[in-house]
Design brief:
Layout lengths: L7 E5 L11 H9 L2 E4 L2 H10 L6 E3 L5 H13 L4 E4 L11 H10 L3 E5 L4 H9 L6 E6 L4 H11 L5 E6 L4 H12 L3 E6 L7 E6 H10 L6 E5 L17 H10 L4 H12 L3 H13 L1
Parallel strand pairs: 1-4, 1-5, 2-3, 2-4, 6-7
Antiparallel strand pairs: 7-10, 8-9, 8-10
Length: 284
């Protein structure tokens, strides 16, 4: 592997779930390099153990990447080969591997990609939505205001949109997508390539209602249909206030406490926020 005195930084794609989704080339490189830099060492150890690989392992993640990058680059310039792996999929996608690659190229280090699994493209090709043109947005901002602003900018994007999301924010994100985009076709993929893989396809509203009744589990990839014709009107379940929505459910025989809980889930906000809206509505 060592040519011209220096080593090489190998970007090794690893399984996003099923451990058999790995190339022969990646396995060979993981065995032959001097060091493996892993985003999640515990997860990578399981992979190495499965394939009986005993290469030394070190961590490289969002918490230590600023000072660890210099160490790794010194090792490579000293003649060592290093394999970079993320916790799953292609390193450099929504993880600090991006910065290591940039630093390596700036210092003249050889960088070689070893392609393989990727959650975004895996979900896209199975979504049933257009794959001709698409845009990957990764994780949206964690704060509600910033997330709203980002989605508002994308509302007229005609290409298929791809997002990553965590289980504890999926309800709020789906509700905000509905609020900003309207009711579009969407695919929600979770546990891709694993035993309990699930791909839900339907409208944004249907996904909101599904997760209002079902607890989100696992990491999610969202594939969202691009914008339609300019000026096309979208149905909006927020044409009525939260208090009015609660009142409608109560009128259907649902206890107010459960109605508040359901509206909170549908809108992706806290129960306290809906409760306050109901009390405010009564006072007015």
């Amino acid at each position: 592997m060592k040519e011209g005195g220096g080593g090489t930084l190998f970007l090794c794609a690893t399984p996003i779930g099923n451990l058999e989704d790995i190339t022969f080339r990646v396995l060979r490189v993981l065995r032959e390099v001097d060091l493996i830099a892993a985003e999640d060492t515990r997860r990578t150890r399981k992979l190495l153990s499965y394939y009986d690989i005993h290469t030394p392992l070190t961590s490289y993640n969002e918490h230590n990447h600023r000072h660890k990058a210099a160490y790794l680059l010194d090792q490579i310039k000293g003649g060592n080969d290093i394999a970079l792996v993320s916790d799953a999929g292609l390193p450099g996608i929504s993880d600090p591997g991006e910065e290591l690659v940039r630093d390596a190229l700036e210092e003249g280090v050889t960088v070689t990609p070893l392609p393989g699994p990727n959650a975004a493209l895996t979900a896209l090709v199975v979504s049933g939505l257009s794959t001709r043109t698409f845009v990957f947005e990764g994780f949206l901002p964690s704060t509600r205001k910033a997330r709203q602003e980002e989605l508002k900018k994308m509302a007229q994007e005609k290409r298929t949109l791809i997002f990553y999301e965590s289980p504890h924010r999926i309800r709020e994100t789906l509700s905000e997508i509905y609020r900003q985009f309207g009711d579009r076709k969407i695919a929600v993929a979770r546990e891709l390539t694993k035993k309990f893989e699930e791909i839900l396809r339907g409208s944004t509203r249907e996904m909101i209602e599904f997760f209002a009744e079902n607890e989100p589990k696992g990491e999610f990839t969202l594939i969202v249909e691009g914008a339609g014709k300019p000026g096309e009107r979208k149905e909006d379940i927020w044409e009525i206030s939260p208090a009015e929505q609660v009142a409608q459910l109560v009128a259907q025989g649902i206890h107010r406490k459960e109605a508040i809980k359901k509206v909170a889930r549908l809108r992706g906000v806290s129960k306290r926020e809906i409760y306050d809206e109901v009390i405010r509505g009564k006072e007015e």
